[in-house]
Amino acid sequence: MQVYLDNNATTMLDPKALEAMMPYLSELYGNPNSLHKFGTKTHPGIRRAIDQVYAGIGATDNDDIVFTSCATEANNWVLKSVWADLMQHGDKNHIVTTEVEHPSILATCHYLEEQCGVKVTYLPVNEEGVVEAHTVKSFITDRTALVSIMWANNETGMIFPIKEISDICKEKGVLFHTDAVQAVGKIPVNVKEFDIAFMSFSAHKFHGPKGVGALYIKNSRKLTPLLHGGDQMGGRRSGTLNVAGIVGMGEALEIATTNIEEKMASIAKIRNRIEDELLKLEDVFVVGNRANRTPNTILISVRGVEGEGMLWDLNNALIGASTGSACASESLEGNTVMLAIGADNELAHTGMRLSLSRFTTEEEADYVIEAFKKGVARLRQISSSYAKVQPTAGGEVRECELHHH
Question: What is the pLDDT of residues 261-314, one digit of tens each?
Fold first, then answer.
């Protein structure tokens, strides 16, 4: 059996989305900007996809949705263009974000700090792995141009208080951007209910194709283009449209958001079963309260078991999962989110992320539980940092101990 549990990294393409894309990968190959029929024949598909994406996130006709190559592009666009539009020649020079954002936010912030002299505040998260709204409020100043905070975390699945944060930004007159890559298509997202200026999302996280994402722009606000060239997307984003990708994204989002609560409940049921079984093991914990987590995600930590070692065992069992730890070496950092919530470096190296999808089955869950338990038993036996419960010379049972290398 093969089991894919790395759906926060990417998802399989929904067969219905692939079916919708196929004509645009074969006979309908015209450039949509061409005036002849080869070009104009692509327009109905693009229009339908635009309608599907607007409906999928609750956008209105006053808003703009611009298709990009991915959410990384959208994130770069917002941060760099807010700098160009509001900071370069104005009196605002400050961005507020968090320590646990996606690298496309953190690396862009570092770039703006180093190259443009922007001041960036990286907010800490609480023990649940969530930034609290009052913390955001306390760091906004008269010089703050933008707050950029993710909707849901890619490692933990924890959902951030976006409503409260957006209300604070509105009250303070500060633009609010959210990287909603791990939220759109997984939990209900309706931009009408929030005061969000910009929202990034990506098709391949909700069973659409890779290579296409989007940026939602409230009230079609002016934003200097990141890519200059032709007048595609109303001059906002140059480059020939990825017609097949856009069509696939629209179809995938419509499928994902139809009866989304039922889909969430179904995924959560299987996720909770895996989680409950793994929590029966000793010295195991899961980051974050289930009630405030995306229904598909588990970030689990097993004392004495390196994440890389566990990944190896699961991979040998044909199970795809992930770890935030780059390497088992202690000279390298462990899972950055676990470090941010206060785990020690050793424990941060034990983080394993299991992320399910609506295609994950009960049978697959059984297989994963068994393989995970076997992996823990094997790795703890050879672990230098985990002393198993065993009788001492006097016969009594010794407690589990952790020895730091």
Answer: 999 999 999 999 999 999 999 999 999 999 999 999 999 999 899 889 999 999
Place of tokens 């930590």: 301
Closest CA to 79 of 51, 55, 48, 108: 108
Q: Which of 181, 221, 206, 286 is CA-nearest to residue 66? A: 221
Domains and CATH numbers, the chain: 15-257 (3.40.640.10), 260-384 (3.90.1150.10)
Choice among 70, 116, 169, 327 that is catalytic:
327
Model pTM score: 0.92
How many Å apart are CA 257 and CA 183, to the nearest integer? 11
- How remote is the C-alpha of 110 from its chain's centroid? 20
Residue type, 194: F
327 is annotated as an active-site residue: yes
Residue 25, Cβ density class (10 Å: 0-12 exposed, 13-18 middle, ≥19 buried): middle
Q: How far is CA 259 from the centre of its chain?
A: 21
- Cα-Cα end-to-end distance for the chain: 37
Contacts of residue 173, Cβ cutoff 8 Å, sequence gap at least 6: none
Q: Which of 97, 91, 129, 132 is nearest to 111 (CA)?
A: 97
Tell me how crowded residue 220 is: count the other CB atoms within 10 A of its CB: 14
State the Rg of the chain over Cα. Answer: 23
